[in-house]
Amino acid sequence: MNRPLFDANQANINVSNWMKEYLEKSGAKGYIVGLSGGVDSSVVAALAVKAVGVDSVHGVIMPIESNHNDEVDAIKVARQIGITYDVVDLAHAHRAMVTSYPAYYEYIDELLMSSNIKSRLRMTMLYQFAGDFNYLVAGTGNRSEDAVGYFTKYGDGGVDIIPLAEFYKWEIREMAAVLGFPEEIANRISTAGFWEGQTDEKDLGITYEELDNILMFFDSVPDVTLQVPRERADYVLKLINKNEHKTKYPPIYKRD
Predict the structure, then answer these.
(1) Distance CA 166, CA 158 (A)
(2) Count of CB atoms situated within 10 Å of the CB of 31
């Protein structure tokens, strides 16, 4: 994939400065970050530390019958950047939710329903911490995922601030490397940990390398040419149109 010049170090500085200014204006005391062990949440947490210091950032790790390695990696990230963290196992709450309405399984994909509940449970817990700490919830979405609506409405999409929403996945990996994260974090296979073997690329039906190339082409990034078959670009365009409702405020009826 042809990529434009990108100064990852300057991007980290710009984002952390923005996070610092935003927090000061908000009147809140710090940032809550849901840590998954993946590159996006790791970069957000590290930039929050650069913005407001280790004493004003708290990580929350929320396994729900997840791969134990995700929790291990998330703890490594928290310790590397020096923040406090809590591990909150939401498996019991998740089981209670999905078994409370069994008839749902007759017409809704079980894995999809279960995944959305997991995402919304995690965000509910993050806001519990945010309320207790008087912190803001820092989202971990990126340009690659947000553009095609790859997030759960009122789940991982329900946050106070989204520091990385202007950055493609490949840029965030470079930002992670500059921040000193090891290869296994910077280039970790992205997964929400919804079920065994689940990965973001499988869910999306496209690799991040392909997706980033297509989005940069759509965004008219200088010197970027489309390097995938046109039908792949058409597929991404369908995803964008299908999930447009996720990126807009709910429509409100206007009385005359």
Answers:
(1) 17
(2) 29
DSSP at 245:
G
Domains and CATH numbers, the chain: 8-247 (3.40.50.620)
Q: What is the pLDDT of residue 124?
A: 97
How far is it, in rounded angstroms, from Cα 42 to Cα 75?
10
Strand, coil or helix: what is 34? strand
pLDDT mean by block of 10 residues, the chain; 256 residues = 89 98 98 96 98 98 90 96 97 86 59 79 97 98 93 92 96 97 90 72 92 96 94 95 88 88
Question: What's the pLDDT score for residue 161?
Answer: 97
How far is the first Cα of the chain from the last one, in angstroms, to the nearest whole number?
A: 51
Q: Which of 173, 150, 155 is nearest to 38 (CA)?
A: 173
Taking phi over 0 as left and psi of -120 to 50 as alpha, with beta for the rest, 193 belongs to left
Residue 20 has a pLDDT of 98
**Per-residue confidence (pLDDT) for residue 186, from 0 to 100:** 92
Alpha helices in the chain (DSSP H): 8-26, 39-52, 68-81, 91-98, 110-133, 143-147, 169-178, 183-186, 200-204, 208-218, 230-242
| CA distance linking residue 197 with residue 218, whole number of Å | 31
